Automatic annotation (TrEMBL):
Classification lineage: Eukaryota, Metazoa, Chordata, Craniata, Vertebrata
Disordered: region residues: 1-100, 274-325
Organism from which the protein derives: Trichechus manatus latirostris (Florida manatee)
SUPFAM superfamilies, A to Z: Ribonuclease H-like (SSF53098)
Keywords recorded for this protein, A-Z: Exonuclease, Hydrolase, Nuclease, Nucleus
Protein name: Apoptosis-enhancing nuclease
Ranges annotated as biased composition (Pro residues): 60-70
Gene transcribed to yield this protein: AEN
Length: 325
């Protein structure tokens, strides 16, 4: 049986559903975005209250474009434009690297040394070690012993060395003293006056980067570009810079006193000296050639002999050659 077709009025009993217009779609999207924006703003306010997010920029201010979005030529224009300074209390975007501080060895790494020599060999012209003193950075005596030379003593040079025959009764052999002294000097910065004479007597070579010869103290105190006398005696430096008198009288020098004085002079110019060492390691003052005024041959000339000794007296030349500068 073939079903009958319903009349047109019966087929359209239900009104057709109206299709959403473009206005309705746009209105729905705006509502959805509005709800999302409200949730976003609520979360943003919460983060700002907790200090986890910086304050939003003022209305009307546009965020700076990223390098990829910046128009060509904007980067070149921004280079010539002065950058605004950061306000006090605000955190800068980038921190400048802190300047490197100048560091130098600790005080425990510094020692001062002074040696006294006597004359051996022909006419006492050979200088050999007879006493050695080592003091700490603070002037404490670390070592002070009399030493028996390897060769027989011809001239004690008592006027300068302070050594007498009685001192040799308690002296120790040179080989023993050398081991003890070098053990103290190992790994230390050695301070002294005319150190090449002391090292020669010890038959030892210390690294130049770890020596501080106080004969160069005047050059560190002089203004840049001003020529100063290359060598000044320890006695004169102590008098003019430390206002103390040393090496006074006819009893000879005290190696302990001279070592302490050398350390005091070093501490007087410690900061500029170590700054110079750190900034220009190639121009260390002790790396310069020894001054010719300290050569033994030059001290053999008559002008360096003591006035109260005749040129032909025995040992006079030997006494003069190791006279402390």
């Amino acid at each position: 049986m073939v079903p009958r077709e319903a009349p047109e009025s019966a087929q359209c009993l239900c009104p057709p559903l109206a299709s959403p217009t473009a206005k309705d779609v746009l209105r729905r999207r705006q509502k959805r975005r509005s709800r999302q924006h409200q949730r976003f703003m609520a979360r943003k306010a919460l983060l700002q209250e907790q200090g986890l997010l910086s304050t939003a920029p003022e209305p009307g201010s546009s965020p700076s474009p990223t390098p990829s979005e910046a128009p060509p030529g904007a980067e070149a224009a921004s280079r010539g434009r002065p950058r605004p300074r950061a306000e006090s209390g605000s955190t800068p975007c980038s921190r400048k690297p802190a300047p490197k501080s100048v560091t130098w060895p600790l005080p425990s790494k510094f020692v001062a040394i002074d040696c006294e020599m006597v004359g051996t060999g022909p006419c006492g012209r050979v200088s050999e070690l007879a006493r050695c003193s080592v003091v700490s950075y603070h002037g404490d005596v670390l070592y002070d012993k009399y030493i028996r030379p390897e060769m027989p003593i011809v001239d004690y040079r008592t006027r300068w060395s302070g050594i007498t025959q009685q001192h040799m009764h308690k002296a120790i052999p040179f080989q023993v003293a050398q081991k003890e002294i070098l053990k103290l000097l190992k790994g230390k910065v050695v301070v002294g006056h005319a150190l090449h004479n002391d090292f020669r007597a010890l038959k030892y070579v210390h690294p130049r980067s770890q020596t501080r010869d106080t004969t160069y103290v005047p050059s560190l105190l002089s203004p840049p570009g001003l020529h100063s006398r290359a060598r000044v005696s320890l006695k004169d430096l102590a008098l003019h810079l430390l206002h103390k008198k040393i090496q006074v009288g006819q009893c000879g020098h005290s190696s302990v006193e001279d070592a302490m004085t050398a350390m005091e002079l070093y501490r007087l110019v410690e900061v500029p000296w170590e700054q110079q060492e750190a900034s220009s390691p190639q121009a260390r003052p002790e790396d310069r050639e020894p001054d010719s005024s300290t050569d033994v041959e030059q001290y053999m000339e008559d002008q360096y002999w003591p006035e109260d000794l005749a040129p032909g007296s025995r040992g006079g030349a030997g006494q003069a050659q190791d006279r402390k500068e």
